[in-house]
Amino acid sequence: MCKKRIEVDVCIEGIGCRRVQAELHPKGCMHATRTHLDIPIVEGLEMLAELGKKRGLHLDYTIVGDCLVLETSGLPATKICSKEIPKPATRRVLLRVLRPGRIYIGL
Fold first, then answer.
1. Residue ranges of the domains in the chain?
2. Global pTM value
3. Rounded distance, CA 77 to CA 46, Å?
4. Does residue 101 carry a pLDDT above 90?
5. Shortest CA distance to 90 belongs to which of 48, 49, 61?
6. What is the rounded CA–CA span in Å between residue 17 and residue 50?
């Protein structure tokens, strides 16, 4: 398969960090229209998942070292860190929930 399992550290301000198994899907893999990460919804990500549940949401981000920092107003800062996460191709990432229990982050 073309998708790749990677370990990412999900850090939520005020809650802490947790290492989880995510899947990296390159563009074209299994008909993916863009490179994306599938991340399990862990403690603290529930509110972020609720934001992307209906139609999805485009979020601004910053890159700090190996971390993708999602900029969400009114919610604690969320950092997703891994050396294997590619730099997003667009100026905003797409957040949505496609499968129950998993967040899609389109890079």
1. 4-106
2. 0.89
3. 13
4. no
5. 61
6. 20
**Virtual torsion, Cα 1, 84, 24, 60, nearest 10 deg:** -160
| Strands 36-40 and 78-81, bridge-based pairing | unpaired
Tokens standing for residue 89 = 């191709």
Residue 72 Cα distances to 3, 42, 52, angstroms = 28, 17, 12
Report how far residue 13's alpha carbon sits from residue 1's, in angstroms, rounded to the nearest whole number: 35
CA 75, CA 82: separation in Å to the nearest integer?
A: 22
Distance of CA 23 to the CA centre of its chain: 10
β-strands 4-12, 78-81 pairing:
antiparallel
pLDDT digits (tens, 9 = 90+) for 57-92: 999 999 999 999 998 888 888 999 999 999 998 899
Best CA proximity match to 10, nearest among 76, 55, 60: 76
